Amino acid sequence: MARRTPKTRRPGPARAAGLRTPSWVGWLFVAPALAVYAVFVLRPIALTFQYSVYRWDGIGSSTWAGLSNYGKVFTDPDLFATILNAVKLIVFFSLIPVVLGLVIASTIRRIAASRLALAARTVLFLPQVIPLVAAGIAWSWLLSSTGLVNQLLSRIGLGGVTRAWLGDFSTALPAVGVIGAWVLLGLCTILLLSGMSKIDPALYEAARMDGAGPVREFVSITVPSLRQEIGVCVTVTVIAALASFDIVYVATQGGPGNTTMVPGLEIYYLAFSERQVGTASALAVVLMVLVIVVALPIQWLTKDRSS
């Protein structure tokens, strides 16, 4: 007689419920990351808030200052000017890379099958690979009084406009902005190009059948379809402008005068050169709040509401 294969009994509802993993087990996996985040992010933020209400030189005893450090940030013309300079850099760090990135990404999408598209993507993304310190040094040479930019201007008969672009009071901040735009253009272009790859080609075909040209396709299809990608680009570039440090430090160190001084660099000078840790912490808190106030509305305006 053939042997019967014993049937495997499935656990009943009560037994299955007893095998469920407790909810607290999941927190055990997250605990190491939370601990690192608390030690290296939350704790420094809390200490910054604490230092901002004291007068302290970083070595000796501290004295209570209340909100006077915050008052100094908004009443001292030099400190408040650093915030204004960072806001001005948003035009160069954010507006120019996003607008140009849209145009360049749309152009690359049209020639995606050619070798030129691959070369363009590589060249545009190259600034993201180069260290910002090296980029700042290279641009300092290019924009110096005897640099390549002035040599080219002299060759084409525009020697009268040549100057030390990073050393002139009227052109130093725009010159720093150009460096930032060059660095961030490739990132915006690649992000927007990846977003364009998700757009249904049938939309463009339908638009062409209705007689739409390239400009109409760009305005009516491409830009609205890239709402989230544009939001990411604007958020990243605005934060880069407000929190800029390395490019400014390498290119101008805040000069000439204080024309290119930004909050990040001013915080560094106040804390480590002038030993005004309380004022530096207050400026850091103001900068953090400013970044949050600017970034949150951008995220809200550009989020996908279809879901």
UniProtKB/TrEMBL annotation:
Residues 83-298 form the ABC transmembrane type-1 domain. Keywords: Cell membrane, Membrane, Transmembrane, Transmembrane helix, Transport. The chain crosses the membrane at residues 24-46, 79-104, 116-142, 172-193, 230-251, 280-301. It is a multi-pass membrane protein. InterPro entries: MetI-like (IPR000515), MetI-like_sf (IPR035906), UgpAE/MalFG_permease (IPR050809). It holds the Pfam family BPD_transp_1. It is found in: Cell membrane. Belongs to the binding-protein-dependent transport system permease family. This is Sugar ABC transporter permease. It comes from Microbispora amethystogenes.
